[in-house]
Known about the structure:
- The protein has helices spanning 16-26, 42-58, 75-86, 117-120, 122-129, 141-151, 160-168, 190-199, 230-237, 286-292, 333-341, 378-386, 414-422, and strands at residues 31-35, 38-41, 66-69, 90-93, 107-109, 132-134, 155-158, 179-183, 201-209, 214-218, 242-243, 247-253, 269-275, 293-294, 299-308, 314-319, 324-326, 329-331, 346-356, 360-369, 397-400.
- The protein is α/β, with parallel strands linked by helices.
- Strand 9 (201-209) and strand 10 form a beta hairpin.
Amino acid sequence: MDELKPSPPNSSPLTPLGFLDRAATIYGDSTSIIYNETSYTWSQTHRRCLQLASSLVSLGIKKGQVVSVLAPNVPPMYELHFAVPMSGAVLNTINTRLDSRTVSQPVYLWTIPMFLRNGWSFAWAMAAVGGTNVCLRKVEMATIYDKINNHHVTHMCGAPIVLNMLSNATNFKMLNHSVHILAGGSPPPTVVLSRAESVGFKVDHGYGLTETGGLAVSCAWKREWNQLPISERARLKARQGVRTIGMTEVNVVDPETKVSVTQDGLSLGEIVLRGGSIMLGYLKDSIGTTKCMDNKHGWFYTGDVGVMHPDGYIEIKDRSKDVIISGGENVSSVEVESVLYSHPLVNEAAVVAQPDEFWGETPFAFVSLKPELGRVTEKEIIEYCRDRMPHYMVPKSVVYKDELPKTSTGKIQKFVLRDMAKTMGRGGAKL
């Protein structure tokens, strides 16, 4: 086999630029982008990307240089995903805050920022299948439902907070067609999944990191699960799942011994990955690379705490930094939040650690309520939790806020809430 080595005929690199060229050839007259009253075909998008790449070169951009982009989800942002690599440069997206009956390809609604892991790679995926991109400058529930109905959107993505907003939106109408939505970014509470599906969304669940080049694990759905009650389907779908084809292996290991934990759905460990789509390392950060890359055992360490179920599906229980250690017991903030979300009056919930002289740390909950449905006291929330979880997991304090602080990508900013919890006493103030 030594004489069988890579050669030009069998080692041509596969890049997203080929997706765009293929889309322009096969789907040239199909709509590629919709933004307000403007629309482009794949042929037009291909030509615009070539023109933009030429402009970058004329500005002096050279091969290997970094082009940083600050822009919302507008057509030029999408085009830069192709134009920059066409020019030989490296794209660095910076954080900021068609009638479907005539089109056989998917219609994708941009609710996640393109700067976030390149929009989870869907900028390139839509070119690969010649689909239609419906761009949104700002994520607003009324606008989302309007775009879904007007353009017959078939696919979209979003963090669990977006699912929660969609299912709790006032004056929404039940969807008149199926919309597949890929949930990711943080573990979704089962009750949020149930609500979203009751509205008409078909929810898929995945897990990935910037370091893995996008989706690394997905909750591969089994046909027999469709016969289960909706609550049980939501419980299964809340799991992150199994490796995608781009991953060689996924495991949950003890962070100290590096040995696989028991596949019982209970034993906690760190989620580790191995596969060809994992990064080579952090640019100019050898220390950071060494911390997450274990060359001895061949694993990339994610920093996420999870379990492995008997059927081989993994489930994230928390970020390692978000685990609450109370009296020697590990408390998953995700599990406590899931119970809080099941309360009919709770709109949003986040649980963080509050320092405690006796227990070390105790769970501290922040919630926002659905004001149109009434009020609930801190004592009632705590009693609700006590009836549904071990006492050591029950929040010792509950603080109400009109809205929880979030990043521009929709994730709740737990570091902000942790700082707030440190300044509050037991039975925190109602904000």
